[in-house]
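Structure, all two chains, one model.
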Amino acid sequence: MRTLAVAHGVAWRVLHNVFTNPSLLIPSLIFPLFFFTAFAGGLSRIDQVPGFDYPPGYTAFQFVFVLLQSAAFGGVFTGFGIARDFESGFGRRLLLSAPHRSGIVLGYAAAALVRWLVTALVVTVVALLVGMEVGGSGIDLVGLYTLAVFLNVAAILWATGVALRLRTMQAGPVMQMPVFLLLFFAPVYVPLALLQGWIHSVATYNPITRVLEAGRGFLAGTPTEVGLAFGVAAGLVLVFSLWAVRGLRNAEQAG
Amino acid sequence: MSESFVEQVGQLARRSVVRTARQPANVVFPLVFPLLLLAVNSTGLQPATHLPGFPTDSYLAFALAVPFMQGALFATMNAGTDLARDIQTGFLNRLALTPMRGIALLAGQLGGVMTMTAVQAAVWIATGLIFGVHFAAGVGGIVVLFLFSLLIGLGFGALGAFLALRTGSGEAVQGMFPVFFVFLFISSMAMPRNLIEIDWFQTAATLNPVSYLIEGMRSLIVIGWDAEALALGFGVAILIALVAVTLASVSLRTRLTRS
């Protein structure tokens, strides 16, 4: 119970900060919409490339990427807040006052999830308003959003681990860059089969590719590689849970 | 132009370059980030070259103009943030007490930005050459491309200086980043304008001056000597530079009067 009480307190504080501070809230809402507009709008003719076969169309194809990207960056943005807390000294006071410190990590993760759900709602509404076609059933869509939730949790756990180890805002690029690379070294613009050269090899072994392809399958109503995608997503959550908990121990030892 | 004025500009340009060089994030990130995006986009969007009417069979050649614009964007932010810090720390006020002419501060700051722009342009051109991009306008085209990027750096650097002098806040300058980002994204950055399918996007890209800057540079790489693209590109770049330098000069005068 004490763990949950700590988590509740931490999550409430983070969410209060985010939703009362436009400079924190707006970028996480605006950036996915930028990417969605630029990719789905500017590159829509890509669906006429020979071999491109995604029945719901290019808007839906890009929507899945932008949704997953917003989930991952929602986690990273919350990680910036953790680093700021520790840089300002608030994090140390939090460590002193929390009876069950794992609740701190849980609270940050819960806040990241709620924060992303708002972004996901906005992105989804915009996509539907611009005429995105949805081929999948309700169950398929639950699958898509569940995958995105896994990615959001994995990203916040990664960012938490980094923030708790480095405890400075200068850790921002360390949190952001690997997530950026993993996302963009997946089949962002065209399906995996159309990629050529080194990017095809990298994308084939990139775990995010499985999540992205399964997500696109869900939205099209033709689920593919579902077990593998959920296995990868759950694996990422597990690995980064350990990473975040070890980071917490590191912060505790630093005092 | 008096010798002391040139010396003042030189000293301040040197200070601007040294200050940037001492912050690795300000040097590395503006170089690494555009290169990463170039690598990702040029490989991921290579299939787009199969579209009928696409002007080249190499997406790398097509996309090589984009890092120049991204570099200009970072130059705007860095120049603006540095100048805003000078205002916030009182450096500008102290400078106003010296015989140094106000315009020397602006010229020095822009000299520093253009030095960084020159380094970046050399990196983008070298990257293109190393990865087999054939510059359609030849060696002369590479020289013009380099000069074009300096002109763009001047304009965008002055824009950053104007924002800093107007607001006096580094955070306010950084806050403009998303606005510039929109201009970059809603342009012909990723696709030729005639191949953009969505009508409103095509219209926005046509109205967006950044499209003409990119297309001017791109013409030297993929087409050759395209007079229309170059005239539009240089015209827009000169206009931005003139307006931005004028605005920055007026704001500097106001700022120094306030001090």
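Residues 72 and 178 of chain A are 11 Å apart (CA to CA).
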